[in-house]
Each structure stands twice: as C-alpha cells, then as structure tokens.
Amino acid sequence: MTRILATLLAVIPLAACGGGAEKPAGEHGEAAGPEKGQHNGRMLRDGDFALEMTVFEDGVPPMFRVFPTMGGEKLDPAKVDLTVTLRRLDGEVNVFKFKPNGEMLDGQGTVVEPHSFDVEVVAVVAGKRHQWKYANPEGQTKIPAETARANGVVIETAGPAVIGETRELYGTVQLASTGRSEIRGQFPGRVVSVTKAVGDYVQRGQLLARIESGESLQVYPVYSTVSGVVAERNGNPGDVTFDRPLYVITDPAQTTVVFNVFPRDLALVRPGQRVSVETMDGQAVAGARLGDYLPEGNAAAGTALLRAILPNPGGRFRPGMALRGKVTVNAVTVPLAVRTEALQPFRDFTVVYANFGDKYEVRMLELGRKSPEWTEVLGGLKPGTRYAAKGSFLIRADIEKSGASHDH
Question: Which residues form the CzcB-like C-terminal circularly permuted SH3-like domain (predicted)?
Fold first, then answer.
C-alpha cells in the first residue's frame, strides 16, 4: 500500500469550510490557515469593513451566518446588502441572499455537502461595494488518469441498477439430452469393419463402419448422422449387430449444469430466473436461465434439482465438473445506485468519490437498499455522475494524508 500511495500526487490543500485572508507564515516557515474571528469563522477584510463568514449547523441544515463589523465595532446587519455565490466542481452554481437576524445575517438556503466550492462574496454598504474571492476545497484530491488506472481505480457512471438478495447454488455439469446420439446399422448383420475408436472426433456424414446384412449378405456402410466425440463403440469386426447401437456420439458443446436447491430457498429460487454461473473459485463462466425442476431430486442431499443450459462451445466443461451459480431474488430496479465496493467513510458520512478529469471529490450519500454488488442512492449524488467504482480506498487514503478538516 505504501508503494502504491507513493505514486499518487500530493492532495490539493484543503481549506474545509472556513477561509479568508491568510495569516503570515509561522516562525518555522509553515503556512498558517485563514484568519479566524470570535465565532471561529473566516475573516474577510476590506479597510475598516469586515465580515466573519461561518456555516451554522447546530441542529439545523447547514446555513451561512455572517457577522459584519465596521472599524472593529458591530455593524447593523440591515445596512449590509450581502450576496454569496458558490461555484462547485461539477459546474453547479449556488447563490445565497441574506436577511438580518439580530447582530448577524442569515443565508437564505441550505449549504449542501460537500462544503467544497469557489466562493465569491459581494457586500454593499452605504453604496460602497466590497468583494472577496477564495477557494474552499474539501475532501478533494488530484490524481493523473494514468496513475489512477495503474493503481486499480476504475471509473463508472451512477445510474439505475437491479438490487436484490443473492442466493448461491451448487451443481455439476451434465451432458444435455440433445447432445447424445445413437448410431445403428440399418439391418442386423455381421460387422465387417469399423473406422473410429472411443474418444475420436467424427464429422456428420463420415464413414463409421461396414456391415454385411444377415438377410441379403450385401455389405452396406454406416455413416455418422451428427458431429461429435465417440463415447461408445459397441462392435468389432466379426461381431453381430442387433438392437444395441453400434456407436454413441456426444457433442461436448451441448451441456447443462444441474443445481441443487435447498428447502430454505425453494420459495425464492424459481424456474425462469437468471443465474450467473461461476467456477468454484469464483471465475465467471456464463449467464443462463433456470429451467424447470427435474422430476427426480437429490435424495442424498435432500435437495430439489434445477437444470440450466450451459454454453460450452469449446468443450471446456466436462460432465461431472462442479460449478456454482448465483441467483438474485426479490430484485427491484432502483433509479440510482453505485457499486457497494465504492463506498468509503468520510467524517460522519458514507461517500463515493466523484470524478472530474484528474480531480476527485467526496459526495455525501443518503443510502437505501443494499446488496453485495449495488447500493441504492437516495440523495447526495446526481444521476450520470462519474465516480470511482473500484480503488476508491486509494483516493480516500490520499485525501486523509492531507489532514483534511471541516472548520466553520
């Protein structure tokens, strides 16, 4: 992890939710934070006129609360025409007007999270215009796209998803009933010659044997009616053929997987549902649809049996192999969701990191239903937002090493 994080660029300095004129550097040369007022807010000064900017959120949604002064003395807030404009990383612009409230000015509207924006403050007092601009980033970092990709960061777009419970099924590969063909002689007789052995691949129309008819004594050929692999050969030269098939040919590409369904899942797992087929070590194999329950069950395991067609064009899966299936039950489509693995803690919130080119910024989420793959988003994220779906813990670590704060 240390080596991975060492490749990331330094985080953008975080001013959190305060700001204003910068204090001089400390005695050792370190940069000091913005000047603070008596309410722990950011001080903005222009001559004798000053504003102390705070975000008040004690038992109420976050709101701007501003304290004006003139010459160091409290100034009647009714004499101040104040406008604050916030410009966010995603292009959203928020404009706040203010009303007097005792010795302060209260912003009309909620300062939604994250409190990360470029701020413009315009105050008009006695006809004189005062203006300030400052950056107020929070939960934000910058990582070049190539560096992010090299360290496993994958970007996806937030949108609809199907969320439900997952049930695991276990089963084995079987040859499909359509994948087995029996080749017989047209008439009973003596086998004169055979051309294929067990395990040989044959093509449709290929010669398999010659038989001397027991009635006419004429020798006639036997051709393969299908392409596939010889599973059985029930005759050698000199043998006499009767009702038993001379050859059994199977098509390895025509396979199914038969899943065991335990009693606790019988009410949830049903024919027709989609199943994701995996190897026992979790590698995805194919998507399939569950067929009807088989008449017979697995008496030894006490389970019912469901069959699903398994695409097997290369013959990779052989009868008897164990496979695993995952079925989503009680599924519902939600309008907005993110990958569950993308979720990270930030202060008292659960967040994802929205992506804007080389920049990443927290998005505080209100969450709904959750599955191992998807989590519903009820608020805090706009549909269509690009976010770090994988590798988000690296972005979190890069932001945390900056020592981000949340001052007001």
Answer: 336-395
Chain length of the chain? 408
Domain boundary among 220, 250, 280: 250
pTM of the model: 0.63
Q: Match 């395990």 to its residue by tokens.
A: 199
Per-residue tokens: 128: 């004189």
- Assign 308 a pLDDT band (cuts: 50, 70, 90): very high
How confident is the model over 107-155, as pLDDT tens digits? 999 999 999 999 999 999 999 999 999 999 999 999 999 999 999 999 9
Provide CB contacts within 8 A for 152, sequence distance 6+: 390, 391, 394
Is the preceding peptide bond at 188 cis, omega within 30 degrees of 0?
no
Across 7-18, b (16+ Cβ under 10 Å) vs e yields ebeebbebbbbb
The pLDDT value given to residue 18: 37
**269 and 170 in one domain?**
yes
CB distance 360 to 393 below 8 Å: no
CA 305 and chain centroid, separation: 31
> What is the mean pLDDT of the segment spanning 186-192?
92
How many CA within 13 A on the CB side of residue 326? 16
What dihedral do alpha carbons 221, 226, 229, 230 form, nearest 10°?
-40
Do residues 206 and 303 both lie within one domain? no
Residues 11-27: tens digit of each pLDDT: 333 333 433 333 333 33
Scored b (16 or more CB within 10 A) or e, 364-386 reads bbebeeebebbbbbeebbeeebb
Q: Is 404 exposed, middle or buried (0-12, 13-18, 19+ CB in 10 A)?
A: buried
86, two tokens: 């916030």
> Is the torsion defined by CA of 257, 258, 260, 266 positive or negative?
positive
Q: Is residue 10 part of a domain?
A: no
> In this structure, how many other beta carbons lie within 10 angstroms of the beta carbon of residue 108?
12
Section 309-326 average pLDDT: 89
The whole domain housing 295 covers 166-174+253-331
**Locate tokens 């993110």: which residue?**
338
Task: Based on the fold, state whether residues 189 and 338 are members of the same structural domain.
Answer: no
The count of structural domains within the chain is 4
Short-list 398, 128, 169, 361, CA closest to 261 = 169
C-alpha 39/C-alpha 53 separation (Å) is: 9
